[in-house]
Amino acid sequence: MRKTWELWSKLACVFLFSAGCFALADVTLQTTVTGIPATSPDDNGNPVVLDAEIIIPDLENPVPGVIWNHGFGGHKGNDRGARELLARNGYVVLSYTSRGFGDTPGQVDLMGVKERQDLIDAVDWLIDPANAIVNGAVIPDSIGQVGASYGGLHAWALARANHPAVKTVVPIATATNLYDAMVPYNVAMMVWPVGFYATGFVPEEDNYSDAFHQIVLEMLSGVNYANVQSELTARSMTGHWGDVHVPVFIIQGINDSLFPANTAMRAFNELKSRNIETRLYLGGIGHPPAVGDGPEIDRLYDEVLQWLNRQLKGAPESETPLISNSDIEVANADYVNSHWNGTVRYADAISAPGRTFYFKATSPSGGTLSTTAPLPLLTLPLPMINTYAGSGYLDEPVTSDLLQGLGLPLPNTNQIPGVLTFESAAFTSANVLDVAGIPSFSLKVISVHQLPVGVPGLLAAFQVDPKIWDVDPQGNATLISRGAYSEPVNSAPLVASPLHTTNFESFATFHKFDAGHKLRITLSTEDLPYLKPTTNPFVVTIHPGSKVTFPTGSWLSAPVQVATVPDPEPEVPPTIFEGLTNLQELIFDFLGI
């Protein structure tokens, strides 16, 4: 049996089109399974026909069309309930199985050239006046698209394609640059790429492209990241923002562990700066642990429907109140808890007022977070060791010889921690921390960051993986966000005093620390199994002046109660995870789900 990853197709139906969120129209639907000839052959030169399904409502006049693209490893039949609900609301809905999955031949290429052409072929087929199956049921210049995760990559590909019939896209829980999302700051994620690769690959069917195999191999081995970046960026929006001319409704999870909200926030700013009509929703939906719950999903579905009605049917603002009050909507969602309290916050632009905390050493394992910078002469630097590589740091000539060449003493690695922990004082009601956006780290560090001539610079000079925690008065810590940073070996010149500043961002978060709670930040040299650690033995020292800045929520409105939400169920409904493979369950265990 073909292995597939159908979770996100199922979740799309749950988090977008929950039954009962609106009254169904009494419309007869005609569902037809068909095939769409693809322009591009498979990698062996054989013709490809996209396995497709179209749902046509029995209405007197032509209606807009919507292309529905499934998630990774899915197929045309996923999300049938969602697609039928769209059809009952006056849309012809076409879904097809992406090449390399289900009954569509070919090779998966992570939205390479052939997959992007398949999407254009699907639009052309849908609007073809000679198409006997559609038979004039579609308004030919009124096509939209909806897709989550892998389907969201299709959304962005279609947005940049400038097809004259396409009037809007809705990318959900996806990325605009696959390299930035899956290899943040040159640190490869491990859990998700392994999971996707393993659950979608069918060796006997040769359903992955050579480029896909190579990307995953290089990503997980740490070899030739330059090629990984080149290949993934070629499949992304980087360099193509100016090609987008249609309205876009971006939906992203605040606590999505695969595609953080950073990508959605940057996309919003990119499009708004080009005067493209854009809406951004951030909440508790996406890849685990962001699975969302019913009330939030119901509201989000209504917003998607109103967006399609506005863009494809010309509905006035009076009929689209949920998307007419602001360009940005944020629903609360902690990293490990998607439960919605029924409130949202609004804004029309993303701002960046910040609140800075300085790292101050008070012990070999960490210290405090202070809003005032410590005096350098009164604060010692803190070393961290790559515990993955262990004491090999002293045994490796590249690192030990360079240290001695700089006149630096060899550290006693047995006394150096792999994790530094810093904690603020308890917040008062007058100074609670309301985080809303992308935290930025600025660390003053010393590391061996230059290899001798002739040694390939493939390893990291050092790696720091931060985590952000909320600590309640009882001392219980809740993970709020995390991040990753790997400094390339050749990133700075070899100088007598190698102290330098390195800057990076962690994953976006929207979280308010209540009075009596504390902010805790851990800086770790590894975050297994979520992130791939570098195999390079290293020691890095964190010096006075290192700091982190949190954007505060002053750019958002106060919370507005828009729904009554019951207490969360003690467990996630089992139907959401029905049919998961053992590997998928293992992945969720890794992520703490």
Structural account:
With 593 residues, the chain is α/β, with parallel strands linked by helices. The chain folds into 2 domains: 7-350 and 567-590, Rossmann fold; 354-551, Jelly Rolls (Sandwich), CATH 2.60.120. The protein is 23% helix and 27% strand. The chain contains 13 helices and 24 strands. The protein has an 11-stranded mixed beta sheet, sandwiched between helices. Strands 11, 12, 13, 14, 16, 17, 18, 19, 20, 22 and 23 form an 11-stranded mixed beta sheet that branches. Helix 9 (262-272) links the parallel strand 7 and strand 8. Helix 3 (113-127) crosses helix 4. The protein starts with 6 loop residues before the first helix and ends with a helix. Mean pLDDT is 85; it is low at 1-24, 450-457 and 571-593.
Could you outline the blueprint of secondary structure elements for this entry?
Layout: H1 7-16, E1 29-37, E2 49-57, E3 63-69, H2 80-88, E4 92-96, H3 113-127, E5 138-148, H4 150-161, E6 166-172, H5 178-182, H6 191-200, H7 210-221, H8 225-234, E7 248-253, H9 262-272, E8 278-283, H10 294-313, E9 328-331, E10 343-347, E11 354-363, E12 366-370, E13 382-385, H11 392-395, H12 397-405, E14 419-423, E15 434-437, E16 440-446, E17 460-471, E18 477-482, E19 485-488, E20 500-505, E21 509-512, E22 518-524, E23 539-551, E24 560-561, H13 582-590
Parallel strand pairs: 3-4, 3-5, 5-6, 6-7, 7-8, 8-9, 12-14
Antiparallel strand pairs: 1-2, 2-4, 9-10, 10-24, 11-12, 11-23, 13-23, 14-22, 15-21, 16-20, 16-23, 17-18, 17-19, 17-22
